[in-house]
Automatic annotation (TrEMBL):
This is CAF1B/HIR1 beta-propeller domain-containing protein. Belongs to the WD repeat HIR1 family. PANTHER family: CHROMATIN ASSEMBLY FACTOR 1 SUBUNIT B. Residues 413-494 are annotated as: Disordered. It is found in: Nucleus. Pfam families: Beta-prop_CAF1B_HIR1 (PF24105). It comes from the Eukaryota. The keyword Cell division does not apply. Keywords: Chromatin regulator, DNA damage, DNA repair, Nucleus, Repeat, WD repeat. WD repeats lie at residues 71-107, 130-171. One of its GO terms (biological process) is nucleosome assembly. Gene3D superfamilies: YVTN repeat-like/Quinoprotein amine dehydrogenase (2.130.10.10).
Amino acid sequence: MDHFMPQIFWHDRQGLLSVDLHPAMRNGKYRLVTASVQKEVRVWEFDFEMGLDPKTQEQKPQLTVNFLANLVFHNQAINQVKFSPSLEHDLLASGDCEGRITIWKLSDQPSPPPQDGMPPNNENWLRHKVLNHNSDVNALCWNPAGTQVASVSNDHTLAVHDAMTGKRIFTTSQFRSPNGVCWDPNGKYICTMSPDRKMEIVDAAKGTRLKHFSSAPLPQRSIPSANGDLLLEEKQHKLFHDDQLFSFQRALAFSPNGEYLAAPCAHLELGSTDLYGTYFFKREDLGTKDFPYAFYPAPKPTFLVRFSPITFSLLPSIKENCLGLPYRLLWIALNKDAVYFYDSQHDYPVAVVDNIHLNALTDAAFSKDGSVLVISSLEGYCSFVRINLSQWGEIQTEVYPVCSSPLLIEEKKMKKRKSTAPPPVEKEDEAAKSPIRKPVETPKAATPKVGTPLTKFFKKNTETSSPKSTTEEAPKPSASKSKKRIQLTAVTID
């Protein structure tokens, strides 16, 4: 791997909060979008060209970055930016601390003249739609089709909008300032993470809560760490770090085919020792198990996971296959100081990139071809890691079928319907039905209300009458019964 950090003031030396890469290359160049504590979104392009290294006098790849556009509309710091995965619509979403999400669309029209001394825009991104929350937008993501945006906010809600029309599809509330969200690549689930040490799974079609993970009974096992093996006791453990974790987001992610859900901010308290890392939840176990499938330790708390879109063949020299997949996954886990590279055949980091910035790391993104990783930081600079894929193994070209989903939606819908249904009402005879609604039952000493159905009223009076009444008074002709009922009803009304 090669590391590059160009001396570019991406946002006038202000701290960078988010970065993302476009899913397609144009003219052999990558496109990059950045956002910072300032109010603008900026789009760039970059590529690697062979050039002479002045130190070694050897031909080495050189990074070239060009400015494309400065997008101005937000009034406060922009927490996250994301390109749409749809190449047809070519959209970009940005969410800020004012609760505003702006959907930008690339236009073929010429760009307007530059403002505030900025160079002219080489791309014209028009403001397409504006979506709103009641507080800061902490994180957002696109659905696999690239037409809907899911966002989480400090107004304690998850909202899904149609990016083409701006219409809100649903809102799920009663979160606690969620700051992480991801969309299942198979389109069935939306997952969120919050500082209240909770991860929740939501139905992507209706917004129904399906399941949450907060604590779980973990089996006893020995976990390797930098201080030696640690013994995990068999008891109920809280799974995630609390709100004292310094991070702008808790970026969980699904694997490319959706088999696993990776959740950062893992935190296990083992006596006086804290164990940090990343959990992996198996998709097919989401409906039956309340604990993670695998745990990948890290020296410090992680807050972001990103999967490489490229999968590799299994290494024949390694017998272990921790996740049990027929291919090998590659992903990174980010903490505020370092980037840890993992693959699915090892239970420890296979590579580490650290000491690349003087301030905390904030975000990271893979290119679509998996050969470039871009990392942003509060220092105001971006790092570029160029990955030689051939060194990681043979690229997997076989297409595997989409994995099945557990019956989370059906089970939870039944439980919700049962818990929220009103108490059953006793059925009445057809003769006792009345269009008048039955009021609340009154005490025996109170005067009966007019709206009481007639048959129930007389049954109640008969039961509460004096016990001295004989059985001879009970049998009455049906005609006389109806007359007495009418007369008694009149008396009661008066």
